[in-house]
Design a protein that fits this description.
Elements: H1 2-26, E1 28-31, E2 46-49, E3 52-58, H2 72-89, E4 97-104, H3 110-120, E5 127-131, E6 142-149
Parallel strand pairs: 4-5
Antiparallel strand pairs: 1-2, 2-3, 3-6, 4-6
Helix pairs in contact: 2-3
């Protein structure tokens, strides 16, 4: 009889622990900062679920919504600065980025983009892929989205 109480007690503890963790992982925090351009569509700059941050794709828009496409360097740096601002607004750092997706309109710019990207992730860079789409929003040549874990 005593063993049954232990088993029931243990099952209740497991249920409470599992329920409390599942509730926290379902909470979504919408991240918005004025230090990055406002979304141009119906999406959030980022959403934090538990200790994971999902940052929406960022192109090189400045805070006033302009895109300096005079060279790929400008677009790339501004997009990465936008990512950094959003990550910091969520209370995280660039070192916590674990996954990045790069969208590059012309892969001939890959070497230059890679060089700039490397300055934002100098140690233990995140996993990533680079995709060449046929077009990006508002005529941009570079876009990046990331996932960070605290």
């Amino acid at each position: 009889m005593r063993n049954i109480f232990y088993i029931i007690g243990f099952a209740i503890i497991l249920f409470v622990v599992a329920f409390s963790f599942s509730d926290k992982t379902q909470e979504r925090e919408f991240i918005f900062t004025k230090n990055a351009p406002a979304p141009i569509g119906s999406y959030s700059q980022a959403i934090k679920v538990g200790n994971i941050l999902y940052v929406a794709g960022q192109v090189g828009f400045t805070l006033d919504g302009k895109l300096d496409s005079s060279c790929i360097d400008n677009e790339c740096k501004q997009a990465l600065n936008n990512i950094k601002a959003i990550i910091e607004a969520a209370g995280m750092q660039m070192e916590q980025v674990v996954k990045a997706t790069l969208y590059v309109k012309d892969l001939k710019n890959f070497a230059r983009i890679n060089e700039i990207y490397g300055t934002y992730f100098p140690k233990n860079p995140p996993a990533r892929e680079t995709i060449q789409p046929s077009a990006l929003p508002k005529g941009a040549h570079f876009e990046i989205s990331v996932i960070a874990v605290k």
